[in-house]
Design brief:
- Helix 4 crosses helix 9.
- The chain has ten helices and nine strands.
- It has 257 residues and is α/β, with parallel strands linked by helices.
- Strands 1-2-3-4-6-9 form a six-stranded mixed sheet, with helices on both faces. A three-stranded mixed sheet has the order 5-7-8.
- It has a single domain, classed as Alpha-Beta Complex (2-enoyl-CoA Hydratase, Chain A, domain 1), CATH 3.90.226.
- It is 44% helix and 14% strand.
Length: 257
């Protein structure tokens, strides 16, 4: 990989590409980070030597989503395009990907984790679609990806309550595919990617194309709907209160306006 990335470490191990988010401790995202990840995925797609890739993170969190507390308009138009629109590039990646979820995957960070084909996690991880606790609507295509993995009822439960689901429960629900001790998360993700890479790459890519047929298009359609709802909710008093109450770790004093 000859390209340089401001917030990523991009390497390879054999036939496995590794994309490491380097914004510790919580790895908040913005347009720039999403674009860098998409650039790295697309570069791996062009590299005939790479057959699968791992997305992992430095620090405590896998990805805590957008930093609403310090940038309440994060997720709005930056440089002319919404970051969730930029994220649709990730859904169009051609090769299998594995997320190594060693810590919290919150809000849009959960969306980033569920974008991948597989997830390896640990008991200490936390999975949360906390948008309604912020007075906001889910994004990052989660209204498509989450029900697809855990079923409509469990997705509703996560969306409406904003509760955090631990790694063991996430594994039992089907949000994560492999559960290992914390110290082994990245190694296990690399092991799964290597196992995939041992199969015929043409056959894997062809099979994946069939299994994910229409996946990226459906994710993009979900994003369009999510953005419509996020746009008006961002302008409400409840959204401002949601940001305050979440930062202060208290229940929101909602006004319904």
């Amino acid at each position: 990989m000859s390209a340089t990335y401001k917030d990523l470490g991009v390497t390879s191990e054999g036939h496995v590409g590794v994309v490491e988010i380097q914004r510790p401790p919580h790895n908040f995202f913005d347009n720039s980070l999403i674009n860098q990840i998409a650039d790295a995925f697309e570069a791996f797609d062009r590299d005939a030597n790479i057959r699968a890739y791992v997305l992992c993170s430095q620090g405590k969190s896998f990805c805590a989503g957008a930093d609403f507390q310090n940038r309440p308009q994060t997720g709005a138009a930056e440089g002319g395009k919404h970051l969730y629109k930029e994220a649709t590039r990730l859904f169009r990646a051609r090769k299998p990907s594995i997320a190594a979820v060693q810590g919290p995957a919150i809000g849009g960070g959960l969306g980033l984790a569920l974008m991948t084909d597989f997830r390896v996690t640990c008991a200490e991880a936390r999975f949360s679609a906390n948008f309604t606790r912020l007075g906001f609507h889910p994004g990052f295509s989660l209204t498509f990806t989450l029900p697809r993995l855990v079923g409509q009822q469990k997705a509703n439960l996560m969306f409406y309550t904003g509760r955090r689901v631990g790694g063991e429960e996430a594994h039992a629900w089907g949000m994560a595919d492999v559960l290992v001790p914390l110290a082994e998360v990245r190694k296990a993700a690399l092991g799964l990617a290597t196992e995939i890479a041992e199969s015929s790459p043409l056959a894997v890519f062809s099979t994946r194309e069939t299994m994910r047929r229409g996946f990226a298009d459906a994710a993009e359609i979900a994003t369009e709907r999510e953005l419509v709802e996020q746009d008006w909710l961002r302008k409400t008093e409840d959204f401002k209160e949601g940001i305050r109450s979440y930062a202060e770790k208290r229940v929101g004093n909602w006004k319904g306006r």
